[in-house]
Amino acid sequence: MTVPAQLTSDEPIRLDSLRQLNVIDTPIEERFERITRLVRKLLGVPIAAISLVESDRQWFKSIAGLDICETSRDVSFCAHGLHSDNPLIIPDAREDPRFCANPLVTDDPGIVFYAGIPLHAPGQARIGMLCAIDTVPRTPELADLETLRDLAKMAAREIATPPAAPAAAEARSLYVHERRSLVDPTTRLWSPGGIAMIAQATFEEASNRLAGRAIVRIRLDGLGSIAHGAHESVLRSTGRTLLSTLRETDIVGRLGENEFLALITPSDTEAFASGVMSLAVERVNASLATELPDTQPVRACAGVYHCDPVSSMGFVEAMARADRKMPPPAARPAAA
Question: Which residues are within 8 A (CB) of 152 and not within 5 positions of it... i.e. 6 or more apart?
Fold first, then answer.
């Protein structure tokens, strides 16, 4: 039987600190994805996560190695780590009475090793954990724990810092029930409604500052020809590739079934915006070639429309013009 973690002695204060950060249910961000990538690389583990623990669930601001965004608090390893500032180390969960019957151990993903460092809110309340996870037993070296501790401090600092893009920072202040509708559940990027809201605000703000900005539409051709499970995996990996290529002031969202939208701001020239997106499309296609080596290829293409600083053009018209700059969909080969 799973042994849920007990509530912390400062649970009301802890939850209030977490709520005030306005980070729960926000889209994935490259600054957090970078940290979980580093945990995997530096500690040599298949799974790493930034977990924030609410009253009834743990929600992952970033998770590398698993395609989930939350679990119930009852099965959370991280909830057990909120009672102390010390690392929570579980060399073999199969031999730990707290976790041996946990479905995350007995079923997929088959967690065996866990190491977590508490994440602190600005008021020092423990709000979650940065954790490294493996499916084999491990005893971490002291250097591994120091690395994890340093990265946890970075994660906590980023959690307390609003996004670089002003419109995204404003959207982060929305109430949770509104914010969930603004995030695409498959890619965890901004949803069509969310990206439209932010784009509108970004265009207005850039126009007021007389700043150049660009709209980019990215389409995946051939997506409908692959299996549904691979379809979702391709969408997720494409979103993460776009995030890792663009700057933190740029914004990425899912626009439709096989389309993404990026806002490049500030953008001094059309050549700059086109160069940025050429690199992004190149990296997406390289990732797709690796992810789908034995299937009909899925290819990315893009259309870019740049607005000069003095332009008063709105988001909707700029998006339509970017659409007209996209190449036509690739023709499918004729049936034999």
Answer: 117, 118, 119, 129, 130
